[in-house]
From TrEMBL:
Its cofactor is Mg(2+). One of its GO terms (molecular function) is tRNA dimethylallyltransferase activity. It comes from Candidatus Amulumruptor caecigallinarius. This is tRNA dimethylallyltransferase. The gene is miaA. Residues 42-45 are annotated as: Interaction with substrate tRNA. Catalyzes the transfer of a dimethylallyl group onto the adenine at position 37 in tRNAs that read codons beginning with uridine, leading to the formation of N6-(dimethylallyl)adenosine (i(6)A). SUPFAM superfamilies: P-loop containing nucleoside triphosphate hydrolases (SSF52540). Monomer. It is an enzyme of class 2 (transferase). Keywords: ATP-binding, Magnesium, Nucleotide-binding, Transferase, tRNA processing. Substrate binds at residues 19-24.
């Protein structure tokens, strides 16, 4: 702490980690213990109509503790990490009027970084730019978009995940909207926040985590994922549905993948996503790891209230 600065009196507790690691259950336990509310940090649970495929909190879990940013947006709404940062920063003072704590729970690492570390000042993308870039992608595909990005912002080719259409499209949008290459706008500077942040993750061995993922996929199918996806099929072009779980179901409905292959691919792609989340965690030395073989709540509370 720099001399002359005040010790933060409020604490943001971040429960993050790979998918299927038990974040929601732990976040609810912590919130009930501390008498506070939960802020979802999931870029897909924020949309309505996707509760099964996104493993959103159940009605019982939502009733146990008040959650924010769950099923609040229509599927066709544009929503960015920058907007999430702004919305959470506006919400936190209201939550802290009633408690010294707030829990953030989710595995959308860009959302978590936006709140805890700050996000670069990226312009809001206009509807016109977004529609034009999306039309180009839908007409010509990802390879064309990567070439386009290389022409207008070659430095982004080194930092953007070129296998992720959303990342490539967004880099092009930013460049066109701002008139400046997106790579020049991304400074990576960490912003100072006026609160204390405690970040934790449940540290399952990889084999156990993958088994939990496989069982979650089985439960999603049993809970009606195929029916949910069928209802969303006419909207499959929307960016909100370009995500693991729905892409595989839509492929099955298109006839490009049989039923068993679609489910196996869903489980495989979820495990790949979990690996990416684990990679993010490794780059964050501030993360505290909880031992799932022992009661989780006492471990968490010892980090939050060490005295």
């Amino acid at each position: 702490m720099t001399p002359g600065t005040r010790t933060p009196t409020k604490t943001l507790i971040v429960v993050t980690g790979p998918t299927a690691s038990g974040k929601t259950a732990l976040a609810i336990e912590i919130a009930l213990s501390l008498g506070c509310e939960i802020i979802s940090a999931d870029s897909r649970q924020i949309y309505r109509g996707m509760s099964i495929g996104t493993a959103a909190p159940t009605a019982e879990e939502l009733a146990a503790v008040r959650h924010h940013f769950i099923a609040t947006l229509p599927l066709d709404a544009y929503y960015s990490a920058a907007e999430y940062e702004s919305d959470v920063l506006a919400l936190l003072p209201h939550l802290w009027e009633h408690s010294d704590y707030a829990v953030m729970c989710g595995g959308s690492m860009m959302y978590i970084d936006a709140v805890t570390r700050g996000i670069d000042d990226i312009p809001t993308i206009s509807d016109g730019v977004r529609q034009n870039v999306l039309a180009e992608y839908e007409s010509h595909g990802l390879e064309h978009m990567v070439r386009w990005l290389g022409e207008i912002d070659p430095e982004s080719l080194e930092s953007v995940d070129l296998q992720n259409p959303r990342r490539v499209v967004h880099a092009i949008e930013i460049t066109l909207q701002s008139g400046t290459p997106a790579s020049r706008l991304r400074t990576g500077r960490v912003k100072t926040r006026p609160w204390r942040t405690v970040t934790m993750s449940i540290d399952y061995p990889r084999e156990q985590l993958f088994d939990r993922i496989n069982r979650r996929v089985d439960k999603m199918i049993a809970d009606g994922l195929e029916t949910e996806a069928a209802a969303l099929y006419p909207l499959r072009h929307l960016n909100s549905l370009n995500t693991v779980g729905y892409k595989e179901m839509f492929a099955m409905m298109d006839g490009t993948m049989d039923h068993d292959t679609a489910i196996a691919r869903l489980a495989k792609n979820t495990r790949v996503y979990a690996k990416k989340q684990l990679t993010w965690l490794k780059r964050r030395p501030e993360v505290h790891y909880l031992d799932p073989s022992k009661p989780l709540l006492p471990q968490a509370l010892s980090l939050i209230t060490p005295d």
